[in-house]
Amino acid sequence: CALAYAAALCGSSQTSVDADLSFFKGQVWLAMFQLKHTPYTDLTRQESCVACQPPNREKQMPTVENLTIGARLTLGFAAVITLLLLIAVMGSLGARSIAQSGSHIYEDRAVPLQHLARVNSLMLQNRVLVAEMMAEPVSLSELDSRLRANIEQVTAAWKAYAASAMTAQESTMADAFLAVRTRYVKDGLLTVRDAVRDGSMDIAARTYKSVVVPMGADAQQGIDGLIKLQIDEAAKEYAESRQQERQVLMLNIVGTLVAIALGAWLAWQVSRSITGPIRQALGLAEQVAAGDLSA
After folding, report:
1. Tens of pLDDT along 153-188?
2. Tens of pLDDT along 270-288?
3. Rounded to an integer, what distance in angstroms lies between the CA atom of residue 117 and that of residue 223?
4. How far apart are CA 183 and CA 211, in angstroms?
5. Could you tell me if residue 48 is left (phi over 0), alpha (psi between -120 and 50 degrees) or otherwise beta?
């Protein structure tokens, strides 16, 4: 507008110039008034001027695009490392649990089974020793020493077995066996020995037949049941340990795959957030180079 009025003034008289200048000043004042009271608006098109709008000062939610390249890379590496550490911790806990299961099988099943086998072997020897006493009374002293030593070893092996961890069923079976074994030793083995020592071979033979044989069978049945229970419990705990091992392995595999997928996704996101603005800037530069200043 100023250029148009200046051109017009150059070819007019003084009176016309003064009038036109007053009109021009009025137009400038009016334009300034409109700019003052209607800011950031295109007066010719009466459309909102987006470029003239003041920047939005409201706080924006932080996104990956708002972070620096170093911060994006740090965030991605931190997420992957955290997941890998979690997998390592899970693997360590699983390995520890499996090791504890193996230790439990050995300490609470294999060792007690050894004690029970010792008890069973010594009880069979004692029954043979009593039969030899009746067959060879002259060897009673030697046989009696071996019998008493075996009884003490059986007691010690049983105490060692009883000190191990037991299930409720095992505890009940152990108490029943202990009661049978006590009567078997007192009313059977020692009674036969005393009868042989007194020369009462008839009483010794009758006691052996009526007490030692049936009570020996009951004691044998009890010890066999305890041995079988130990084997069954060991097999059960071993199966549970293998199942736990498979679960830990599966968790590690799944965790590793998740870590790989997360790492790939984070790498793609970071790469996209970096290359996206670069591609946009290159596109704008190409448009400007081609003469398109509207970009």
Report:
1. 999 999 999 998 888 999 999 999 999 999 999 999
2. 777 777 777 777 877 777 7
3. 8
4. 9
5. beta
